[in-house]
Amino acid sequence: KMGRRSAPRACGGSALRRVFPLRYLLCASGDFVKVYSVSTEETLRLMGGHADLVTGIQLNPHNHMQLYSSSLDGTIKLWDFMDGIPIKTFTVGSKLLALYAPASAEDSVFVVIPKKGERDTFQLVSVKLAKGAGQDLEAKELSVVLDGVGASMKHIAFGREGEYVVSVKDVNLQVYFFKRKLLNRFSLSTLKTKGGDNNFSCVVCHPTEDCIATGHADGKIRLWRNFHHRKEYTYSTLHWHHDIVMDLAFSVEGTRLLSGGVESVLVQWHNESSCQKDFLPRLGSPIEYISMSSDGALCCTLHTDNRITIINSNLRFSRSIQGLIKSRDVKTGLVVDPRTKALVLNGEPGHLQFYSLQSDQQLFSLDIVQRQYIHQAGLKQSDLVKVAFSARGTWLATVEESEEVTDPELQLKLWFYNEETQSFKLNTRINSPHDNHITDMCFRDMNELEEDSLILVTTGRDCVFKVWVMVEDTDPEGNVSWSCDFVGSYHNYQATNCCFSEDGSLLAVSFEETVTVWDSLTWDLKCTFCHPPGNIRNICFGRQTCSKYLIGATDYGFLCCWNLLTCALEWSAHLNVVVLQPDPLSEHIAAVSWLSKESSLFVFKPNEPRPIYIQRNLCKEKILLAAFVPRDEPEIISSEKYYWLRRSQLFFLTDTQELMTLSTKSLEERLTPSSKQLAVEESLPVTPFSLLLGKHRRQQAQEDTELGKPVVGVITVNVQLLHTPAHVLPSASFLCTIFINSLLISKENKSAEEIADEVEVESEKAEDDSDEEDVTEMEQEDTSHTELLGEMTCKLSKSQEKELRKIRKTDYSWISAF
């Protein structure tokens, strides 16, 4: 089952608008709704259930512990986000592009849907939420409010107390008054004079006055008043932004207006005056959305780099929640940091982002290029293109190059991990390591404690591969640096890929259509393989029991397996493989193909030509990259079909830069543990003391269970009572009997200690007529009997135990004479 871990494009629209309760921040992300803690930035809950992209979320205006969400799957869900469970699902049928829930609307919400029969035309409709006993309900009662609206959440806003609704599109503004059933239309000039562009980009309404604020493509903000009349309306203009105004938001009392755009600056306007304004600059990336908390104490901004910034009411930075940064182009591929098991790839321009898959947040960003990036079209600048880690994560190699096609400016940098500063420090910078673009590089995975064994190989379009080794510097401190030790080539072909065998003894380098195998100690060429037509696209060695095989994929679609012992082709298949990724902890190799505009997954062992797992139509998008991430502990998998995922988890990155993973559990199984946690418990920060206390409690509970204390039934009932939402619990009279009975200790369920005491008392009474030797022997036997009783479910009566002891003391040695 495919699960979307992070979708940078999903945190949009209604994801942050007016859904900011006091302690929690709710955000739409892909098919899910995430609940963050404002104080700790942690992801408290992941609510899933939609079958497609979530396009809108709104708090229930009549119950702020509940949340509405809309999706492209045509459903509206009502959630209890404190417990993370869906209460109702309303099926509308059409794709839902935006969601609004004004307090004035009773038992209804407003959504934007495509207009039937017309392309790229949308309607704002009112949806009557049906009432019923079931959880899944049909919502077919739709009423059209406005035609020709924009598809974005930012293009529609509701006025004070829900008296009117405003829609903007192109240069047109519509205001519809519900009670009067009056529609007023206003238009601006379409002429672009002196750099002006009157196209609307966003709209927001004043919370207490009849005032509409609109943002425009030329950076202007217009404040509309007296719009009840078609000809007597007025507007004033505020102007600071030099480009499009991305979003606007009024404060709760309406005295301040916030605006944001491509300048990465949050502007605060006071009393609708252009002279009174404050700025919060250097927020990192353009601002897409702005949201205010219900009490006005905080606001947050969503940025184009998939980051949420939480800001105090005095316009001071508070906290930041960074997700997976959406880079322009992931040239580095998906790489796993051996130290943190974080996913490493391109982040901000010239930076490497270390993304934690466990917390779904960025750990840190490493500036590789160390130059100021200038956002200007057509300007040739250096960017990060290749990255590789050594086996233990001690060394990091990066390649940066300029965007020049013919004569690129190249730099190879070697970084050493500093334990004291807990970060990478630049060790060696090599200018122009190759005469043309570097196509691939890899470290030899051997014992890093021996410096002689650690080498780096780079391949380039200059038709050579180079071997880089560590050498000691001549300075007294005895530092090390890197230098070139060997240069190899093959028939003046371009070198495209390289990889080492598991033991590091062999190096495979592909030169266009040919794969060459080299001895990593003497650098002698051992053998060559080829499978024309087509150049080699990917290569990798088999691991563990399959280490004698070499796998390659050609750009003509062939997947080939060569035997290194016989130097012959073992098998081949025509699959149009675009991604070839070996699991570092097993013999399995994952191959992703792109056929008939769909991505398919094949998992195989090199010694078996038949795949052990096939998943057709894995996703609609084209998968460009993949990576196996080792698990902290092997997962218990009952199905043999998914046994290859036991030690590692497979992640994919699509051409739309969505990060996906293959899960062995259903959606309900993955979300159940979080939905059963109390919100109060989850809002507490994870500290060393809390971890220690939790470990102590688990150990104590385990000891109590081993001693036979009857705590299981009581705990189960209490947990069910406390963790079940009140609105789905039966009556208190029904639960009272069950709860009281769970507290009582049954006579039949005696602990091992009680049974041992009873047996010991009975044994003392039965020993009065026995001598000392018999007593000692009997006590030893009785002790073993007590241990067995602790595990037995059927127990003897006291009279039966006395009879059994008499039989034990009877001398049966006379039977041996026969």
Automatic annotation (TrEMBL):
Gene3D superfamilies found in the cross-reference section: YVTN repeat-like/Quinoprotein amine dehydrogenase
For this UniProt entry, what is the primary localization, expressed as one broad class? nucleus
Cited SMART domains: WD40
Which intervals of the chain are annotated as region Disordered? 754-789
**Keyword Transmembrane belongs to the record:** no
For bias type Acidic residues, the affected ranges are 754-781
| Keywords of this entry | Nucleus, Repeat, Ribosome biogenesis, rRNA processing, Transcription, WD repeat
Provide a Gene Ontology MF annotation, just one. Answer: RNA binding
Q: What is this protein called?
A: WD repeat domain 75
Task: Report the source organism.
Answer: Malurus cyaneus samueli
